[in-house]
Amino acid sequence: MNDAMPVVEMIKTLSYDHDRLREVGARIIGAIECCNVEVACGDLLEFQLIQDSHFWFQDRLMEAAAYPGMEDHVRCHKRLHTILIAINGVLCSGRYSALTTDLAAFIEQSLAHIKEMDHPFHDFLIEEKSG
Asked: pLDDT tens, 41-76?
């Protein structure tokens, strides 16, 4: 694995993304609940940009670290990305009234991904570097 960026800094970067995803996710849900489609679309785009960047960086780290859970983790990233693109299309088309539940479920899945898959990867990185 490349030592150009210390593991602690890698994990800080990933955790910062997680915090931003939580914040923007809450704004999206609030905008949908208030029927403010324009704000929801802008926030959803921001969520997508953060998520895409985060997934790209994390996928490279997993590859470099030879992370044994990489295949499932990357598959989850692709699934979440596909769902987000579909939701974005529906939301930006103006058919948002039926989306509140789907969007909330997606945000919940994205945040669950952090706990279920990202945290074990962070632990792996720490063990890999300290071992």
From this structure: 889 899 999 999 999 999 999 999 999 999 999 999
Question: Is residue 82 situated within a structural domain?
Answer: yes
Total number of domains constituting the chain: 1
In the chain, count H helices and then E strands. Answer: 5, 0
Q: Provide the whole-model pTM.
A: 0.84
Determine the Cα–Cα distance for residues 7 and 48; give it in Å rounded to an integer. 25
Give the residue numbers spanning the domain of 50.
7-130
Total number of residues shown for the chain: 131
DSSP secondary structure letters along 56-105: HHHHHHHHHTT-TTHHHHHHHHHHHHHHHHHHHHHHHTT--TTHHHHHHH
